Amino acid sequence: MDYLAAERERGITINSAAITFGWEGHRINLIDTPGHVDFTMEVERAVRVLDGAVTVLDGVAGVEAQTETVWKQADKHSIPRIAFVNKLDRTGAAFGRTVKEMWKKLRARPLVLQLPIYAEGGHGIRGVADLVTMETVLWDPTKIDGSAFVREPLVESTDPKLWEEAVRGRTALVEALAEMDDAIVEVFFEEADGEHLAVPAIALKAALRRVTLENKAVPVLCGAAFKNVGVQPVLDAVIDYLPSPLDRPPALATMRDAKTALIPLSEVGKLCALAFKVTHDPRRGPLVYVKVYSGKLPVRATLYNTTTNHKERANKLLQMYAREAEEIPVIQAGNIGVIVGLKDTRTGDTLVLANDTQAIKSNLQLNTIEIPSPAFFAAIEPDAVSEEQAIEEALRNLTREDPSVRVWTDEESGQMLISGMGELHLDIIKDRLINDFKCKATMGKMRISYRETCQAPGVASTVYDKEVLGKKSRAGCSVTLEPTEDPSNQITIQLQEDLADSLPHLTQEDIDQAIQTGYQSGLSRGAVLGFPLAQVHVKIDKLETFGAETTLGAISASVSNSIQEALRHADPCLLEPMMEVHAEVNEHHIGSVVSDLSGTRRGHVIGLYATDDKTAVQDTEVYSPPDSLHQDVDAYKAKQVIKAHVPLSSMLGYSNSLRSLTGGNGQFSMRVIGYGAMSKDRERSVVQEMRG
């Protein structure tokens, strides 16, 4: 599924891909999402349309920083999950430690369903012990595709040590389920006579499904995907424990005339679909990936986009198999498919049938997909004037594919700027422009996307007074700006009267929307370097109206102008993106790495913890197999993880520096945690650098 040239070259997933396949009489729609922090947007829009998820964990690295970020995204949408601990064939893999990290770092309740069975001498994994059915599942090492495996009952005489560990695991599994599910308690006493091993596998599977769907626990399986060991049981677990679309709560939508803010789609009945991804195919044109939540989507149907208020025709419907596609006549509710022929639809848009007058009239819309703010940007210049049009067209396609990519022109320099989530993200954009779209362009030096805020209160009153197309347009506004600790911006409207009474030609709803538009516009450009504002509280104290001369545009403009004027008197300053960094190094390198992070890179070291933290089973309340199954090696146990908060600007090129400091043995991961203040000296240096 990693079919892009850049993905194969780097060995990572960059672009989420979809594939549909059958397993044990069921239809599975699978979306493979990236794990790199720079491609968070790909994960966000995939998670938005999922019914369930398989979280693949690295058995060597354990739960990484980006895993925590993706886990929180799944938590936000209440996605039921199972976990697969991978790479147990590698030196340094530790199944038990990874399970404990799920409890401590992800705040999840892992339920271990399998134990790894290692080959003689501890060289590689050859199978798993199934704690639900009390069987061993062993793969044929001569079949590299993993297609041949044998299930046999687990008996004490064959492997007494494995039997003892499996009994402990089965006991822990039954007791953990009993804490969360009343039905399994009845089975335990009435059918199994209080014997853990006598609880039927079918009853355990039913209980596991219930607690998984309720997000009370996460079943954990294990294996080595590179050698295809443990893959079939994962697919079985998807069928057994993860929800079908019918098991999920109905999607919620907004309607203009609804009595409540959100209504379930089960009350709508007709077609309602969400566009969650757009890709550009050089032969077919734009491909719009949709999840159909209700009704069905037939081929050649005329659709209405309630987000953009445009009609478009679905010329073809495709079922995707990664890069390959098959034409289909209809997309049923609960399924994912691709529409060919939509020219204006973007990520997050809601689609209904053009003849569904009720949905169109009430402006039916599904909750849209959140788009993260970019952290890096760079200038892009065409190699020749003749290349400008091709580059602009390519960038239009790229921004439609990936909404976290933004393109704008700097007013002072006239340069075209492109922003993304990180160094790798911008590097991929450059590769695609040159290789996929055949553009001839040069990308400039990487820069950080800062934010601006105020350090003191600021008050301003302005009057917008202009003549537009021969018609007078006037409105006044008074605002107060204050700094706030909240990472997002806040607005408080404290007007003394209902403006609709004095402006009969406008509705209160339209006036409120105009204030919001002016608020967003005023915060979009700061007073220092023109970056968006953050951590600001705006109070709209007064709106001055002038009868028929007060238009919605005048209200928006007066609010925006007042915010900009107040900002100039509020001691504006820059904020820089802050990263949570986890650097994994050997013990004898801790001093040099900590010194580098806290000194040269202006970071704040939060703590230090060992990768082989052996917290007792009783403390973590999760079963873990003994060290004989861990395959831990001394060199790996000596690893320590340094946790620090560091400005993003200081992390540019850190991978090379860490390799140099640790002799190539160190590795790190990081994620954005917000924006922090910078010193005056640092701010002066940034301003001078940005302004040249």
UniProtKB/TrEMBL annotation:
One family name in Pfam for this protein: EFG_C
Keyword terms of this UniProt record: GTP-binding, Hydrolase, Nucleotide-binding, Protein biosynthesis
SMART domains in the cross-refs: EFG_C
Residues in Tr-type G domain copies: 1-246
Domain of life: Eukaryota
Any GO MF annotation of the entry: hydrolase activity
Entry keyword annotation includes Membrane: no
The keyword Ion transport is assigned to this record: no
UniProt xrefs under InterPro entries: EF-G-like_DII, EFG_II, EFG_III, EFG_III/V, EFG_V, EFG_V-like, G_TR_CS, P-loop_NTPase
Summary of the function given for this chain in its UniProt record: Catalyzes the GTP-dependent ribosomal translocation step during translation elongation. During this step, the ribosome changes from the pre-translocational (PRE) to the post-translocational (POST) state as the newly formed A-site-bound peptidyl-tRNA and P-site-bound deacylated tRNA move to the P and E sites, respectively. Catalyzes the coordinated movement of the two tRNA molecules, the mRNA and conformational changes in the ribosome.
NCBIfam families linked to this entry: small_GTP
Stated name of the protein: Elongation factor 2
